[in-house]
Write a structure and sequence with these properties.
The chain is α/β, with parallel strands linked by helices and about 200 residues long. It contains 8 helices and 8 strands. The protein has an 8-stranded parallel beta barrel, surrounded by 4 helices. Helix 2 links the parallel strand 2 and strand 3. The longest helix has 13 residues.
Length: about 200
């Protein structure tokens, strides 16, 4: 499983890049734009090809998930506790999967299985955040300890580390900095990472 996390700001032709990335094998795209209002997100969704909607997870705006038939909703660690179990169940019953973030594997046993996926970071040294260093060594092997959802590795994932995440037994990877440092090369870089994750390249391990 490969998830894309969007650039945090505005970039040219972004919805077109979403479609291209999905066509090249991305499983989902987390649309996360810190500081954006619901109307800003909606304008971006309206610019996208509707065929993208079933693959999009929206951050913090459940109304848009329901309105556009998106794949799911993401709530970051900071606000996860402020969303009631009743609300989460309603979103789930409306057809939206639920996603959240954690920063310690010790959190997994207390994450309810109502969450379909968690993003665990930083697995490797962050590409987009200077000084945000890996919290795991290369000998780490994931033990989900009863958690039934997918655990995706986030932080420092590129063509050189994707296969290491696979050997760590993550269910998938989430890509951010490796794509958006150079948006004009996002699709090309994605293909290299996709092939490394699937074991179809000679990336160093």
């Amino acid at each position: 499983m490969i998830q894309i996390i969007t650039h945090t700001g505005k970039i040219n032709h972004e919805p077109t890049l979403w479609l291209q990335l999905l066509q090249e094998g991305a499983d989902s795209i987390l649309v996360r734009k810190p500081g954006w209002q619901e109307a800003d997100y909606e304008m971006l969704l309206l610019a996208a090809n509707p065929s993208c909607y079933p693959h999009l997870i929206i951050a913090n705006h459940p109304v848009l998930c329901e309105r556009y038939g998106l794949l799911g909703i993401h709530f970051g660690e900071a606000i996860r506790g402020s969303v009631s179990q009743e609300e989460l169940l309603r979103y789930q019953q409306s057809g939206c999967i639920l996603s959240t973030s954690i920063h310690s594997v010790q959190t997994l046993p207390v994450v309810s299985n109502i969450w379909s996926q968690v993003l665990l970071s930083p697995v490797f040294d962050s590409i987009s955040k200077a000084g945000y260093m890996a919290a795991f060594d290369t000998n780490f092997r994931l033990d989900k300890d009863g958690y039934a959802g997918n655990v995706l590795a986030l932080g420092g994932i590129n063509q050189h580390t994707a296969d290491k995440a696979r050997h760590m037994r993550f269910d998938g990877i989430a890509l951010h900095g490796a794509l958006w440092q150079h948006p004009e090369r996002a699709v090309r870089n994605f293909i290299s990472i996709r092939d490394a994750w699937s074991g179809n390249s000679f990336s160093s391990s």
